[in-house]
Amino acid sequence: MATNKTTEPEKFPEPTLQDNIARMNETVTIELFKDMDRYKYDVVVRVDGKRYQLKRGIPIQVPRKVYDVVKQQLMQDQATAQLIELKETESEAKLKALE
Predict the structure, then answer these.
(1) Hey, where are the domains in the chain?
(2) Residue 62: CB partners within 8 Å, gap ≥ 6?
């Protein structure tokens, strides 16, 4: 008779505060979109009281904590654009219903 063995998932140690700080200070490469209209100026980010001026259109290296702030802002911009589009669609539907 075969026995059914269940394997426990591998457990990884919880990262320490020092591990998290080291990770946030790791350097990562990013490239911010650039055009000749709305996205032509540098992006300024402040993290932990320090100011970072990020050039657009070229690969740059920044600490991961700066990358995370930029990434979060891009995600928020996308969510805002989706909400605006939804509200415009709802508004148009209400106007058509009134006609």
Answers:
(1) 22-98
(2) 27, 28, 30, 52, 54, 70
User: Does pLDDT of 18 surpass 90?
Assistant: yes
**What three-state secondary structure class fits 32?**
strand
Band of the pLDDT at 2, cuts 50, 70, 90?
low
Closest CA to 88 of 80, 77, 98: 80
The residue type found at 22 is A
> CA 7: distance to chain centroid?
35
Q: How far apart are CA 72 and CA 24, in angstroms?
A: 15
pLDDT value, residue 4? 64
Q: Report the 10 Å Cβ neighbour count for 55.
A: 13
Q: What is the pLDDT of residues 50-73, one digit of tens each?
A: 999 999 999 999 999 999 999 999
